[in-house]
Prior knowledge:
Blueprint: E1 2-14, H1 18-30, E2 36-39, H2 48-51, H3 63-66, H4 82-96, E3 102-103, E4 107-114, E5 119-126, E6 129-140, E7 165-166, E8 181-185, H5 189-198, E9 204-209, E10 215-218, H6 223-232, H7 234-258, H8 260-272, H9 281-285, E11 297-300, H10 303-310, E12 313-317, E13 320-324, E14 327-330, E15 335-337, E16 340-343, E17 356-359, E18 362-363, E19 371-372, E20 376-377, E21 383-385, H11 394-415, E22 419-422, E23 430-431, H12 439-444, E24 451-452, H13 463-472, E25 480-483, H14 488-502
Parallel strand pairs: 1-2, 1-6, 2-3, 4-17, 6-21, 7-16, 8-9, 8-16, 9-12, 10-11
Antiparallel strand pairs: 4-5, 5-6, 13-14, 14-15, 17-18, 19-20, 22-25, 23-24
Family: Belongs to the FAD-binding monooxygenase family.
GO molecular function: flavin adenine dinucleotide binding; N,N-dimethylaniline monooxygenase activity; NADP binding
Organism: Williamsia herbipolensis
Amino acid sequence: MTTANETDVDVIIVGAGLSGVGAAHHVREAMPNGRLLVLEARDRIGGTWDLFRYPGVRCDSDMQSLSYRFNQWTDSDSIVSGATIRDYIEKTAVADGTDERIRFSHRVTRVEFDSETTTWTVTARHHDQTVVVTGRFVYLCTGYYSYDAGHTPEIPGLGDFAGPVVHPQQWPADLDYTGKRVVVIGSGATAITLVPALTEKASHVVMLQRSPTYVMAFPRHDDLDEKIARRIGARRSAVLTRWKNVLIDTVLYQMCQRWPRYMRSVIRKENAAQLPADFDLEKHFTPKYDPWDQRMCLAPDGDIFSVLAEGSASIVTDTIDRVTPDAITTRSGEIIPADVVVTATGLQMLAFGGIEIVVDGRDVAPSDTLSYKGMMLSGVPNLVFTIGYTNASWTLKADLVGEHFGRMLSHMRKHGHDQFVPVRPSTVDERPLLDCEANYIVRSIDTFPRAGSRSPWQLGMSYYHDVLTLRHRRVADPAMRFTGPGDRRGAAVGHHEHVEAVR
């Protein structure tokens, strides 16, 4: 093993996915002559959209709001494939020149800040080599789940199954399920996506779920957007479409939160209209929780309902008793024959890619910090991160975080500052960072930063509120401490006191 020491840069971005490529654009816009470096663990641009390659992979969010504000999607197709999303991210990076600043196959393992020099030392693994890079700011665009493995619960007898057992996160390129009986275990967005796609080759697909999920149909192609584009042009139409879709998503979410009983009936009627009259809607598509207490699943053109109605797929709602070499037996005694089992059982959340964070020689556990404006950590200087919305397109928040960080850089340059650090208040009630009851979040949310009971320590889920807060309001507030070379030592001491307080 050898160690390579790199030159100092201004901003080190970790991750070259949807967030990282967008972050690079905003950093370069704020610092046209700045030195920028992007470290990416994988060997291609795309992040999530390079990792997931299972049949039918797509995003629940429409491309008009998932695309960057600075490079808006102008096609009338709203729901597109994962490969199309990855291609869009890569083309954006090439057009920006960001691709020339990315170092692939660099897995960041540790970031360490020195308050005396206001410098981050970033350690990464590049094949069998340790690479060390230094910079003024670190921008974590690592997402919030593990890229190494998904979540697979203990399933009795799964090891006895004679056929392939596949988790969507590690889908084999050579898996042949043509004419096979496929059982997909799970009911979340991945399962809802997989089932219709698998029916194109499989003899039959069963979605085996322990409990149901809310699902709503969503058009792949928006004819209205196309008509508007013909009248006013694709670029201007894209702006209107983006705001229209954000408004629809926001209204839907707010209605579900305020009038859950009514919205439950609306969703039920919409589902019933697409399924046979004798379909057991109560059992298979009516969750016990209220709409949007967990993330809503979208079915492009109602594809999941179509394959259920035509019989190429079916749903079993029950608990697994045991897996045998060629079938799955449920608690009620039903035997489901299977040649292939797909465990679409969720993600494994991981805070900041498992990167070790150290400030002035002290390890910083994310769960000991408060999230400031949903993009910084209390007591951790010159570090920004991106976590997107759970109730809207991820990029909407990612863009706002990038813009706000750019405004902070401009503010610091104007006032001669070289360091910022959010200062935790002496009294504030703690909350989970993400207010969502999805199982994959509940399992690991205690390892993430905490949110506070009041602004600016909350991770808001309202795009309109965040537009005001992050795009338009002043970057300086009582909770943020900016310092320059003259008072650097005082900032370091203040940080030490803070770390002791949260421990």
